[in-house]
Amino acid sequence: MSYIEIKDLKRKYVMSKEVSVEALGGVSFNIEKGEFLSVVGSSGSGKSTLLNILGGLDWEYKGKICIDGKDIKEYEPNFYRRHIVGTIFQQFYLIPSLSVEENILLPMKFVGTKVVDVKQRLEYLLDTVGLKSRREHLPKELSGGEAQRVAIARALIDCPKIVLADEPTGNLDSKTGESILNLLKELNKTEEVTIVLVTHDRETSKKTDRVITLVDGKNV
User: Fold this and answer.
1) What is the mean pLDDT of the chain?
2) Are 190 and 25 in contact (CB under 8 A)?
3) What angle do CA 54, 213, 189 make, to 5 degrees?
4) How many domains does the chain have?
5) Residue 179 belongs to what domain range?
6) Of 13, 102, 94, nearest to 52 (Cα)?
7) What pLDDT band is residue 122 in, cutting at 50, 70 and 90?
8) Is residue 110 very low, low, confident or very high in pLDDT (cuts 50, 70, 90)?
9) In which element (H, E) is residue 194 found?
């Protein structure tokens, strides 16, 4: 049994009685524990829909997703989104009025944490992403690469089992983007976390262990 099993995943958006859009048309693939996998496809291929479903943001799908043998619909949604998956977004989504440290700790203000020593975890992540000297800075004082590193640390603060990365290098120059990919590869090993990276860039996808290609809502 694979760690993540995705079986016949379908998602249709009904716009009106006459109009509907099939975003996913029967996607099936497995992901092994600790794997660094990328999902690649052009705009409209179903990447974002797949990521939203895996991230627990969309439960209106057909088919089945199991993680370590458990259907994700059996989880309480907030628990799933905090303790099972952590998400890194292309746009960073940092709170402008909060410092680097406060942004990283933000998820813990909404749900109980399973991390025994939050301070130790914070110090470890600040060191790992290279932001110890920037901990009191606001997002506007950071470069794009630094902002994405904050977002990565925030996604990892509560030790999720899976990290979903949505075009994490999309807003970065090539050199900075490469450094972010290298950081994710490092965390994949040291944190023993499974990473699913969504991208339209095939060069980026080549840096991962395996590539799943989506075309018109189906994996090919």
Assistant:
1) 92
2) no
3) 60
4) 1
5) 32-63+72-219
6) 13
7) very high
8) low
9) strand 194-199
Q: What is the pTM of this model?
A: 0.91
Question: N- to C-terminal Cα distance for the chain?
Answer: 22
- Per-residue confidence (pLDDT) for residue 82, from 0 to 100: 82
Q: Rounded CA gap, 5 and 51, in Å? A: 14
Q: Determine the residue type at 85.
A: V
pLDDT value of position 115: 53
Helices and strands (H and E) in the chain: how many? 7, 10
Q: What angle do CA 207, 208, 210 make, to 5 degrees?
A: 130
Query: Higher confidence at residue 110 or residue 131?
Result: 131
Q: Is residue 44 part of a domain?
A: yes
The CATH number linked to 203 is: 3.40.50.300
Interhelix angle 144-156/118-128, nearest 10 degrees? 150
Beta-carbon count within 10 A of 154 CB: 24
Characterize the bridge pairing of strands 194-199 and 162-166: parallel
- The listed range with the strongest mean pLDDT (81-85, 108-112, 193-197) is 193-197
Predicted confidence at residue 111, as pLDDT, reads 55
Cα–Cα distance between 3 and 70 in angstroms, integer? 10
Query: Do 89 and 134 touch, CB atoms closer than 8 A?
Result: no
